[in-house]
Amino acid sequence: MQFWQTWKRRIDKKYRVIYKRGPSRLALFFAGIAIASWVSFLLLSGYPVVQYIYYTARPATSGKLALLLSQVTTKPQESLKNEEIVDHKLPELDVSKPGGEYLMIPSIGVDAVIWEETTANYEKALRRGVWRVPEMPIPTTGTPVILVAHRFGYLEWTNEFRRKNSFFNLPKLKEGDEIEILWEQRLFKYEVTRVVEGEEIDSYSSDLILYTCKFLVTPERIFVYADRVN
Question: For a 10 Å CB count at each end of the chain, is N or C smaller?
Fold first, then answer.
């Protein structure tokens, strides 16, 4: 018992100055950084959980988003530029490339099949990933090509599938980023010219337009405009 009291007095004496002064400003600074880091980590890691709970509580949300994505007004065909194949130079046919239609955006990891469905069956295509608006031209016949995809996707999507087939990271694209479309064994290359937010397409002069919803249940969308470079 005597030993314990002696040891305690020594410890109290050794750290008495620290107890009186309190933690230093440097210690408070690093403590603040640590707390901020943990809060940021919890917010970021908790986002998928919040999304899961939201979709579980409102299972029709994905359908509503799909409907919103299908409702962007498209301009009449007769007013589009390069509607006909005349003066519309095509990339060389490369039979070594796979058949089918694909969208590749290297900077955000998109590597998706482009699905063809009528506007009446838009949700069937969006459940698979990227949908081409059927009222607009295909890359080999005219412009603009318009591609649509969910930003948040569906609960049954795996993380890997979501990364490759959703437009979640579309807002991260910036001017000059490359977009590729493989269509009928021809590789079309595009360069991003604008990334904007709005409720509808503001110009049909670009060769390629991509868009997705910005939030879960609002009409505001993210649009990416790009022009061909090959």
Answer: N
Verify that 153 and 185 share a domain, yes or no. yes
Query: Mean of the pLDDT values across residues 147-175?
Result: 90
Lowest mean pLDDT among 31-40, 61-70, 91-100: 61-70
**In a shared domain, residues 184 and 204:** yes
Q: Report H helices in 92-183.
A: 122-128, 159-165
165, 213: one domain: yes
Q: Find the DSSP H helices in 58-204.
A: 61-70, 122-128, 159-165
Q: List the domain range (segments joined by +) for residue 12.
A: 2-52
Q: Of 170 and 47, which is predicted with more confidence?
A: 170
* Residue 88 and residue 198 in one domain: yes
Which residues lie below 8 Å from residue 181, measured CB to CB, with a gap of 6+? 101, 102, 103, 104, 114, 139, 145, 187, 188, 190, 208
State whether the Cα torsion 40-44-49-55 is positive or negative: positive
- Residues 167, 81 within the same domain: yes
Residue written as token pair 């039979």: 95
How distant is the alpha carbon of residue 102 from its chain centre? 17
Domain identity same for 94 and 154: yes
- Asked whether residue 112 falls in the same domain as residue 140, the answer is yes
Q: What percent of the chain has pLDDT over 90?
A: 40
Q: Looking at the 3D structure of the chain, how many domains does it have?
A: 2
| Residue among 172, 191, 171 at smallest CA distance from 180 | 191
Position 33 pLDDT exceeds 70:
yes
